[in-house]
Specification:
The complex is a heterodimer of chains A (212) and B (243).
Chain A (H helix, E strand, L loop, with lengths): L9 H39 L6 H53 L9 H36 L2 H13 L5 H37 L3
Helix pairs in contact in A: 1-2, 1-5, 2-3, 2-4, 3-5, 4-5
Chain B lengths: L1 E8 L1 E7 L13 E6 L2 E5 L7 H8 L8 E5 L5 H4 L2 H7 L4 E5 L3 H4 L8 E5 L4 E5 L2 E7 L9 E5 L4 E5 L17 H15 L3 H11 L6 E4 L5 E2 L1 H12 L8
Parallel strand pairs in B: 4-5, 5-6, 6-7, 11-12
Antiparallel strand pairs in B: 1-2, 2-3, 3-4, 8-9, 9-10, 10-11, 12-13
């Protein structure tokens, strides 16, 4: 189970981004294994000939899904890196604003303290702007995770169809049933990994939305 | 942070130091500001930890938009790690620093500040009527290093040369040179790596008229103590970590 991110501290956003990247590297591995499994399934269905004719479009589907997932994982890794960089920049602006506010308090009646007013105003604007952009970056990441779920949601139906096709493949039945089982297990693992990542992101979004 | 005006005749020199709220465990630093009319330059403006106290002190003597220039004698964090913070207030300022460190200083959170690299042989900067000279002090201690000389005020800001490890409430000026030696000796022998560089610097600096020598740590030297320091430093073997 994922550990909930309790606060919106930049450290936690960085940890969330790094953890998502790490979790999704497992998804990439699963997708790669699926792709390799497809080659095996194609070889079996070719040997089975007419008895496994219905299996051809199924292997094509699995192959396509695996490649789509691997591409999405790459996109998500880049987006997570962008999110980390943004969290660092926003943290810098936030800390800087805090330090300048401290200076204004300390400066009291210093004759030139008002010369800092435009600096503070700009930092406050930047702070809001960076917060909005951070939320937008998080939402993009969440949307990419949803795309993985979308890509894999047909896997359950396909594994059922695979079993039906396998039952007509005579001596190759058992081998093709293994393909169906592997597809079902792989898609379930991907679904769980993506759900973990989505939960992490949801925690980050909630805390950023409720800050200040 | 304590502010001391060390020169005031047409233009002003300020030293900001002895911050009572300084975080424990960090070395005390002297930051300088030269103000000439409506322009000012901060010399070795300090680390992140002293930024708030330093800016607060500056606001008693100058508007932020009057600070047009910064100078970093070398790349150490106690000299200039506050760069990314200053940049927010001084988006149009120019940082003068040894060419050697230009790309290194960007690591201190600065993306936009204009950097004017100083060539190895030195250079000058004009602040209105005031002309300051960048005096080479390479290997004292950093491999690219400059001091700032004001011929009109006869002040040499001497970076780490003349520095001493002092109590946080130490006076601003050396009052007994012989007694002060103990506070400087280890610092110079260990931080300064090259006897040749030291002699080269002494030869150069002896040609300047100096009333005040103002290091980045510890007390300032004035009057005859400046020559006493040069004599003492000339005779001191440095780079002593090599057995």
């Amino acid at each position: 189970m994922p550990t909930a991110v309790q606060t919106n501290s930049p450290e936690n956003i960085l940890i969330a981004a790094a953890t998502i990247t790490s979790e999704l590297s497992k998804v990439r591995k699963i997708a790669r294994e699926m792709s390799l499994g497809v080659m095996n399934a194609k070889a079996i269905s070719s040997r089975a000939g007419e008895a496994a004719r219905g299996f051809q479009p199924i292997t094509d589907f699995i192959d396509e899904m695996a490649h789509e997932v691997m591409q999405l994982v790459t996109k998500i890794s880049h987006q997570a890196l962008r999110l980390s960089r943004f969290a660092v920049r926003r943290n810098h602006i936030r800390k800087t604003l805090g330090i300048y506010q401290q200076v204004i308090q300390k400066a009291g009646d210093a004759p030139y303290s008002h010369s800092l007013d435009p600096v503070i105003a700009k930092l406050e604007n930047d702070h809001v702007e960076y917060r909005n952009q951070l939320i937008s970056n998080i939402r993009t990441l969440k949307s990419l995770l949803d795309d993985i779920n979308y890509s894999t949601r047909g896997a359950q139906v396909i594994s059922t169809t695979s079993r039906v096709e396998a039952s007509q493949a005579g001596e190759y039945r058992k081998s093709l049933e293994v393909v169906a089982d592997n597809l079902e297990q792989a898609s379930e693992k991907i679904r769980l990994q993506v759900k973990n990542s989505q939960n992490r992101l949801q925690d980050v979004i909630s805390s950023v939305m409720h800050e200040d | 942070m304590k502010t001391t005006k060390i020169y005031d005749s047409g233009h002003q020199w300020y030293v900001f130091a002895r911050d009572p709220e300084k975080v424990e465990g960090i070395i005390d630093t002297n930051q300088y500001m030269v103000k000439a009319g409506s322009r000012a330059i901060l010399l070795d403006p300090g680390g992140i930890e002293v930024f708030a106290a330093m800016l607060t002190a500056v606001l008693h003597h100058a508007r932020v938009d009057e600070i047009t220039d910064l100078f970093a004698s070398h790349q150490d964090p106690d000299i200039i790690s506050s760069l990314g913070l200053w940049e927010q207030a001084l988006p149009d300022a120019t940082l003068h620093t040894p060419w050697l460190w230009e790309s290194f200083l960007r690591h201190f959170g600065s993306k936009n500040i204009k950097i004017k690299p100083i060539a190895d042989e030195g250079g000058t900067i004009e602040l209105g009527e005031v002309k300051l000279q960048f005096i080479p002090a390479h290997y004292l201690h950093a491999s690219g290093n400059f001091h700032v000389y004001d011929p009109q005020a006869r002040i040499l800001m001497s970076g780490d040369v003349g520095a001493a490890l002092e109590a946080p409430d130490a006076p601003m000026f050396v009052d007994d040179f012989e007694e002060h030696i103990d506070k400087m000796k280890m610092f110079h022998q260990r931080w300064m790596p090259s006897n040749r560089a030291k002699q080269d610097w002494i030869q150069r600096v002896r040609q300047l008229n100096i009333d005040i020598m103002a290091p980045q740590h510890g007390r300032l030297f004035k009057g005859e103590d400046v020559q006493r320091f040069l004599d003492w430093f000339e005779a001191l073997p440095v780079g002593n970590a090599i057995a």
